[in-house]
Each structure stands twice: as structure tokens, then as C-alpha cells.
Amino acid sequence: MQNNDPQSPGGAQEPGQPGASTASELDSLQARVAELEASNAELRETVLRERAEIENQRRRLHRDLEQARRFANEKLLNELLPVYDGLESGLAVEGGDVASMREGIGLTLKSLLKVAENNGMAQIDPLGQPLDPERHHAVSMVEAPGVAPGTVVSVLQKGYVLNDRLLRPALVSVAKD
């Protein structure tokens, strides 16, 4: 008599029997688990590399931003150097008449205003214009015959805007009602 019990020693298993397919399924599942573990390890490695790359980019961005802050005024200061040179050479002149000194100061002022304009700054000179409380600060009201009330009749100190943003309002005198 032949023992067909798969659990007993010496028992033969035929391919169609449940014991044979279980071993095959187990091998297949173990292979699949190994495959998934390898895939998982790859994904972990990829995530770690991407995190490191993001951190490196963050550091580079921070460094570049810091450099930009430190040297943001470089262009402006380079443009101001001729103004400094003009002022220094004007101060170095011994003697000289007032007219030539005044002319030199005027040229230096023009140079300075040009540098300011190139960098987005503009003067507010509201003489003869209606008072604009957003850009003008009225410090006094004066009698001004023939001038409409609320009109700027004198500018005590010019105002300035930087790219349409007020830096300093113009100090003005305004015609009375």
C-alpha cells in the first residue's frame, strides 16, 4: 500500500495536489517580497538624494541672496564715484573765484541728479501745482494775489520719489483761500 499523505515521510506529491502549489506560491511570494524590498530601498535612496539636492539648492539660494544684499548698491556706488571725484577736486582748489566754484558745484549737482535718475529717483518740484497731500507737506499758507487757493507758491524743500514711491514729501507754502 502506498502512502499518499503529503505530511508523511516518503509521500509523493503530484503536481495537481495542494502541497505542490503552496511551495510554488511561497517561492513566488518570497521573490515578490524581495523585489518590493529592493524597490523600496531604491525609492528611499531616491528620496534621500532629492532631499539632499533640495537642501543644497536652499543653501545656494541663501548664499546668492546674501551676496545680492551685500552688493546690491554696487552699481549705484560705481555711478557715484565721479560725483565724489568732482567734490574732492573742487575742495582741492586753492583760491579761485566764487563764479567758478558755483559752476563746479552746479556741474557736480547735475551729475548727482543724473545718477539718482538712473536709479529710479525723481525730484518732486510742485511749484505752481495744486497741493497734493500724498506728495506735498504744506508748512505755511501765504497771501498770493492772482493765484488760485490751494496752489503751491513756493517750495522750501524738494521732495523725492523712488520708482513712484514717496521717499520724502516736498515742503511747500500754499496760497490762502
Describe what this molecule looks like in 3D:
This protein is of the alpha+beta class and 177 residues long. It has a domain at 120-177: Nucleotide Exchange Factor Grpe, Chain A, domain 2. The chain is 53% helix and 18% strand. It has helices spanning 18-70, 74-92, 98-118; strands at residues 121-124, 136-142, 152-157, 159-162, 165-168, 170-175. It has a 3-stranded antiparallel sheet with strand order 1-4-5. A hairpin with a 2-residue loop joins strand 4 and strand 5. Helix 2 (74-92) runs antiparallel to helix 3 (98-118). It starts with 17 loop residues before the first helix and ends with a strand. The relative contact order is 0.07. Residues 1-13 have low confidence and may be disordered.
Cα-atom Rg, whole angstroms? 42 Å
Number of strands: 6
Give the overall shape, derived from the CA principal axes: elongated
Q: Approximately how much helix is present in the residues?
A: 40-55%
Q: What fold name stands as the CATH topology of the domain at 120-177?
A: Nucleotide Exchange Factor Grpe, Chain A, domain 2
Broad structural category: alpha+beta
Distance between the termini: 131 Å
Provide the CATH architecture of the domain at 120-177: Roll
Topology of helices and strands:
Blueprint: H1 18-70, H2 74-92, H3 98-118, E1 121-124, E2 136-142, E3 152-157, E4 159-162, E5 165-168, E6 170-175
Parallel strand pairs: 2-6
Antiparallel strand pairs: 1-4, 3-6, 4-5
Helix pairs in contact: 2-3
